């Protein structure tokens, strides 16, 4: 039960050392609205294929961890009436035992990807240290999994709703290299740059792959974060972004939102209050990350 069930396509790609890119399902079920999520799922798999790699979207269906989903299974994951549970790594055992349907976060997707033999994974934004974590202790398990799982995660930094400085400090403590793709600044999801720098920069997929390959030879090494800024045409206006962020944080306080609901509630607020601007941004960045992840996977397999 703990060995993921891998589709034939993904299994033969891995057996032949062809490039494979893992994709998460929480962004579909909990991060994007119905309808739009299915279109994004399709585009993500499409750009991975166009770059010469095989996509492997990961979820738990009927209690079975699945690596690679059919179009019908993607329909299922994207349909809100199926009420998928948001599964972090700690939730996987319970979901297997109780035969639940669930979507995997960065933490659980990375863990399952690694178990299946996949080393490259694309997402939108990594979870991290939340603002006010000193009181709430809300620190995403994504950080812990990156610190212990040898997977490359390609993302657009972390959402501005998080405490970016604390997140970067924790990644340093846990020896996770943060590599900017074509940038010296850590990207802030909807914005191309934050106030924080990155320790390393690469300007090509080949260099990114070389860093990952070399990092894997370092004793005790695990995950790598490749931080890819949102495409410039889709970057959110700074003032709009500030306003949505302030409103979103206020909403969380008012409704006393906690735990795993925090990220979905904030994303939902951004999507409705921006009239879709944040949705276009979210789609553009995750598609760009999938495409970059595929390019790096191709280099790593070469
Ligand atoms: N970034 C997005 N959309 C998302 C998420 C991140 O753009 O839906 C999800 C990812 O699955 C990530 C999770 O792993 O949110 C983090 O949740 P938490 O903060 O509860 O650990
Ligand atoms: Mn959390």
Automatic annotation (TrEMBL):
Which Enzyme Commission number(s) are listed? 4.2.1.70
| GO terms classed as biological process | nucleobase catabolic process
According to the UniProt record, one GO cellular component term is:
cytoplasm
Which InterPro entries does the UniProt entry name for this protein?
A: Indigdn_synthA-like, PsuG
Q: Name one GO molecular function term.
A: metal ion binding
Q: Does the keyword Hydrolase apply?
A: yes
Q: Name one Pfam family in it.
A: Indigoidine_A
Catalytic activity reported: D-ribose 5-phosphate + uracil = psi-UMP + H2O
Active site per the UniProt annotation: 24 (proton donor), 159 (nucleophile)
KW Ion transport (keyword) present: no
- Residues holding Mn(2+): 138
Q: Which UniProt keywords apply?
A: Glycosidase, Hydrolase, Lyase, Manganese, Metal-binding
Record text on cofactor binding: Binds 1 Mn(2+) ion per subunit.
* Cofactor(s) named in the record: Mn(2+)
SUPFAM superfamilies in UniProt: Indigoidine synthase A-like
Q: Which residues bind substrate?
A: 86, 106, 140-142
What role is this protein assigned? Catalyzes the reversible cleavage of pseudouridine 5'-phosphate (PsiMP) to ribose 5-phosphate and uracil. Functions biologically in the cleavage direction, as part of a pseudouridine degradation pathway.
Q: Quaternary arrangement and interactors, per the entry? A: Homotrimer.
Q: Which family does the entry's similarity section mention?
A: Belongs to the pseudouridine-5'-phosphate glycosidase family.
**UniProt protein name:** Pseudouridine-5'-phosphate glycosidase
Which organism's genome codes for this protein? Saccharothrix carnea
Originating gene: psuG
């Amino acid at each position: 039960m703990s060995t993921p069930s891998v589709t034939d396509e993904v299994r033969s790609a891995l057996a032949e050392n062809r490039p494979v890119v893992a994709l998460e399902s929480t962004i579909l079920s909990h991060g994007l609205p119905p309808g739009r999520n299915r279109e994004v799922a399709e585009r993500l798999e499409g750009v991975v294929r166009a770059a010469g790699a095989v996509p492997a979207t990961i979820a738990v269906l009927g209690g079975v961890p699945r690596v690679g989903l059919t179009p019908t299974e993607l329909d299922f994951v994207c349909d809100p009436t199926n009420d998928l549970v948001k599964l972090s790594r700690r939730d996987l055992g319970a979901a297997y035992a109780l035969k639940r349907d669930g979507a995997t976060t960065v933490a659980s997707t990375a863990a399952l990807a690694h178990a299946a033999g996949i080393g490259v994974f694309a997402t939108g934004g990594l979870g991290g240290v939340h603002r006010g974590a000193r009181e709430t202790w809300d620190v995403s398990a994504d950080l812990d999994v990156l610190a212990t799982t040898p997977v490359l995660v390609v993302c657009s930094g972390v959402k501005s709703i998080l405490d970016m400085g604390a997140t970067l400090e924790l990644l340093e403590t846990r020896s996770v290299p943060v590599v900017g793709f074509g940038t010296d600044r850590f990207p802030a999801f909807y914005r191309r740059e934050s106030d924080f720098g990155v320790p390393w920069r690469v300007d090509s997929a080949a260099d990114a792959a070389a860093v990952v390959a070399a990092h894997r030879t370092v004793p005790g090494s695990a995950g790598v974060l490749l931080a890819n800024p949102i495409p410039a045409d889709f970057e959110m206006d700074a003032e709009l972004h500030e306003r949505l962020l302030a409103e979103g944080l206020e909403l969380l306080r008012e409704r006393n939102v906690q735990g795993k609901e925090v990220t979905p509630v904030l994303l939902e607020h951004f999507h409705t209050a921006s009239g879709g601007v944040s949705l276009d941004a979210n789609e553009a960045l995750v598609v760009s990350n999938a495409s970059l992840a595929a390019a790096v996977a191709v280099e790593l397999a070469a």
